[in-house]
Amino acid sequence: MSPPTVIKAAIAILYQDGRFLLQLRDDIPTIVYPNQWACFGGHMDPGEEPEAALYREVDEEIGYTVPEATFFKEYRDPGVIRYVFACPLTVELGSLELKEGWDMGLFTPEEIRIGSCRAPRDEQPRSIAIPHQALLLDYI
Known about the structure:
Protein name: Nucleoside triphosphatase NudI
Strand content: 35-45%
Radius of gyration: 14 Å
GO molecular function: nucleoside triphosphate diphosphatase activity
Number of helices: 3
CATH class: Alpha Beta
Cofactor: Mg(2+)
CATH architecture: Alpha-Beta Complex
Organism: Acaryochloris thomasi RCC1774
Largest sheet: 7 strands, mixed
InterPro entries: Nudix_hydrolase (IPR020476), NUDIX_hydrolase-like_dom_sf (IPR015797), NUDIX_hydrolase_CS (IPR020084), NUDIX_hydrolase_dom (IPR000086)
CATH superfamily: Nucleoside Triphosphate Pyrophosphohydrolase
Order of helices and strands: EEEEHEEEHEEH
């Protein structure tokens, strides 16, 4: 019997002026955390280093070239390892192109503590995915 597959992911805590950029994931039942807020980032390719995956994922998802990434912490849960980096967001939100997900927004630590943020696109509140809320609160 082969060992269980462990998913490895690189996650970006993108911050600007005391707020954090989150992605509202698409409302597709087959994806992880559908219709919930999450940090940008994603699965690492086989053999890919965490920092390289972080730069690639952020560019693929919002067309942003991360100027610097500081390793924050590694989170291990059954079946997944998350490598989390803190990254400054040095451009205006309007200059980013959302290529993956339904919406994005900058949110305060208080909104993150509450665990629900309103989508700028339709003003409806949506939950923050529990693992992402936890790592953000850990960082804050």
